[in-house]
Write a structure and sequence with these properties.
By secondary structure, the protein is mainly alpha-helical. It contains 19 helices and no strands. The chain starts with a helix and ends with a helix. Keywords: Signal.
């Protein structure tokens, strides 16, 4: 009996101790009386701060898309983007570079154009501007508009990019676009070859072999790819490029406008281009001819969305974008100026020339 009583007392003590431990634990989990409730609301405020930081750049950063002046003919404005690149390429001079800084400036001047949308759409627009100078093609497009109706014709051009080239004069328009693009590509490749050779020749000079301390800033600048400043006077003529006109006199005027706006290839160089094989269907050339058809009916002025959709060739955009990425990686790996000359030759020049040379295939 005595043993049972002792066991009962001992169990009671254990139960009391357990209750005390539980009560202490619960007290520790409850907020202290002195802590204001507002303290618990501070956590969401701290979490919201990073969101505000991320959203801020969206307000201040310049959009990556193509900036077209209000009211501009979108074909001419986009062609001017390519003209700006081509004129900068034409202005390169290996002989004028005598310092690492000079080479950096030349590289950045070309690299700023390598936004894939800007340059790729500009190439299509420039070829289309030349295709639209074929009078027979322009006349036939306008006949198709009279027969089908403007909206139906635009819808057909967007759904089948080969349709425009199937019209009378369409093949001549395609060849006109192909010649100017291929002639420019050859000129760009020539500049690239000159800088590639310079990468070997400059190794004789101390400035070309000296390791530079500006690699971090230089690579950051190339990654930023700041777009070109506002278009210079020679390129502005593209922004006001008139819609195509079938008369021979206006064709001559239009051709002169195109030639004045871009000095990279000569008429003789374009005429020397021989197209040994037929232009492949559904190539970027077909897009150029389709955009030229839109130009013949004045669509680049009031149907910009349709025009720009036809300009966007996925393969050409991807090719130009690849050139940009390869240029950035190449420059990041360089340590001496003569190595950067190879990067300039191989990617912003050589790769772009190859992208353009593929438009017929």
């Amino acid at each position: 009996m005595q043993r049972k009583w002792l066991a009962f007392v001992f169990a009671g003590l254990l139960a009391g101790t357990g209750l005390m431990i539980h009560a202490d634990a619960a007290a520790q989990q409850r907020p202290k009386a002195g802590a204001p409730k507002a303290a618990a609301k501070k956590a969401p405020a701290r979490k919201a701060a990073p969101k505000a930081t991320k959203a801020a750049p969206k307000v201040t950063t310049v959009p990556a898309g193509i900036l077209i002046p209000p009211g501009a003919n979108t074909l001419g404005a986009h062609a001017a983007l390519y003209a700006a690149y081509a004129n900068d390429v034409n202005g390169l001079s290996v002989g004028s570079i005598t310092t690492g800084r000079g080479l950096t400036v030349s590289t950045e001047r070309i690299a700023r154009h390598l936004n894939s949308d800007r340059l790729a759409l500009g190439i299509i627009a420039y070829g289309a501007a030349w295709a639209a100078s074929e009078p027979e093609f322009v006349t036939e497009v306008r006949k198709a508009e009279a027969t089908m109706g403007r909206d139906a014709l635009i819808a057909r051009l967007r759904s089948d990019i080969t349709f425009a080239r199937s019209l009378p004069g369409g093949e001549q328009a395609a060849q006109s676009a192909a010649r100017v693009v291929l002639a420019d590509a050859a000129r760009i490749q020539t500049q690239g070859d000159a800088f590639k050779q310079a990468a070997y020749d400059w190794q004789r000079f101390a400035w070309a072999k000296a390791s530079t301390a500006d690699s971090k800033a230089r690579n950051a600048a190339l990654r930023a790819l700041v777009p070109p400043p506002p278009l210079a006077a020679p390129s502005v003529t593209f922004s006001t490029l008139p819609d195509a006109n079938p008369t021979s006199q206006s064709r001559q005027v239009r051709t002169q406008v195109l030639q004045r706006g871009l000095n990279i290839s000569t008429p003789a160089a374009r005429e020397a281009i021989v197209l040994t094989d037929p232009i492949r269907p559904y190539s970027p050339i077909d897009r150029m001819v389709a955009v030229a058809a839109l130009t013949a009916i004045g669509a680049p002025s009031d149907r910009k969305e349709d025009t720009e959709a036809l300009m966007r060739d996925p393969r050409l955009v991807s090719c130009v974008n690849s050139s940009r990425l390869n240029m950035q990686m190449c420059n990041a790996a360089t340590k001496q100026p003569y190595e950067r000359s190879f990067c300039l030759a191989e990617h912003p020049l050589g790769e772009i020339a190859k992208c353009m040379a593929k438009v017929v295939r």
